[in-house]
Design brief:
EC number: 2.5.1.n9
CATH architecture: Alpha-Beta Barrel
GO molecular function, one term: magnesium ion binding
Mean pLDDT: 96
Low-confidence stretches: none
CATH superfamily: FMN-linked oxidoreductases
Structural class: alpha/beta
Number of strands: 8
Subunit structure: Homodimer.
InterPro entries: GGGP/HepGP_synthase_I, GGGP/HepGP_synthase_sf, GGGP_HepGP_synthase
Bound molecules: the ligand CC(C)=CCC/C(C)=C/CC/C(C)=C/CC/C(C)=C/CC/C(C)=C/CC/C(C)=C/CC/C(C)=C/COP(=O)(O)OP(=O)(O)O, SN-glycerol-1-phosphate, magnesium ion
Family: Belongs to the GGGP/HepGP synthase family. Group I subfamily.
Length: 239
Amino acid sequence: MLSSFYMNWQHVFKLDPDRPIGDEALHEVCMSGTDAILVGGSSGVTFDNTVDLLSRIRRYEVPCALELTDPDAAVPGFDGYFVPMVLNTPDSEWLIGRQAEALTGFGHLMPWDLMAGEAYLVLNADCTAARVSGAQADLSAEQAVAYAQLADRLMRVPVLYLEYSGAYGDMALVRSVRQSLQQAQLFYGGGIRTPEQAREAAQAAHTVVVGNVVYDDLQAALLTVPAVKSSAKEQDHVF
Ligand SMILES: CC(C)=CCC/C(C)=C/CC/C(C)=C/CC/C(C)=C/CC/C(C)=C/CC/C(C)=C/CC/C(C)=C/COP(=O)(O)OP(=O)(O)O
Ligand SMILES: O=P(O)(O)OC[C@@H](O)CO
Ligand SMILES: [Mg+2]
């Protein structure tokens, strides 16, 4: 039985092992009321910087998951693991090739009950994930919905991730994608810097991921937590 450790996450902070964060800032992030810390980055992630960040986060009770982007940085001891797969790339290396290569001969080591696949639609052409994977980011809402339906209904992915890293996304597109899903959990990430954006994203997706603003403006980052949580409460009243 595969676990769904991420199922109740409404708000998540994504921390990059390749970016320095001081003890005080990390304390505030971990005590913020966020549902989880997601450790991951598109470049410069190593075994050592991942172990270092995990051990510092482990001073706190907040759940902590790792987004695997390099097999050499597969550190044991996280509460859960995500394996990203980019749907909208013409290069199957980033859809499934590198993941299969990483597993070849090592699949018996995988903590399968703690793993979840993350189907990415990378929608900001300027972000690192788009550059790395060669994603075709200029999708219309109709095209995004088509990818989402295939991933949700035919591939039955547990998580669909709309990735706008560094830029605030098209919330009408995000809402359309959410409405098209039958079983996948929708993660939204990208460019959230204000409580208003966080609230709007929480109304559009199931899980809101906040990353870069932690490093640029910690106080603004912290305000996204109550914004997402209050928006989720309002929706509970509606449904
Ligand atoms: C403990 C354990 C798990 C042991 C098992 C050992 C074992 C068998 C390990 C292998 C695990 C495995 C299957 C690894 C696969 C790794 C891999 C090659 C995955 C492919 C990742 C991928 C598709 C990368 C493309 C880019 C992408 C979608 C990245 C996602 C993360 C992301 C977007 C981070 C944000 O990036 P950031 O750096 O912040 O970028 P900005 O500049 O935009 O801010
Ligand atoms: O860093 P930002 O732009 O907040 O995006 C969050 C996350 O989706 C990055 O993978
Ligand atoms: Mg980043």
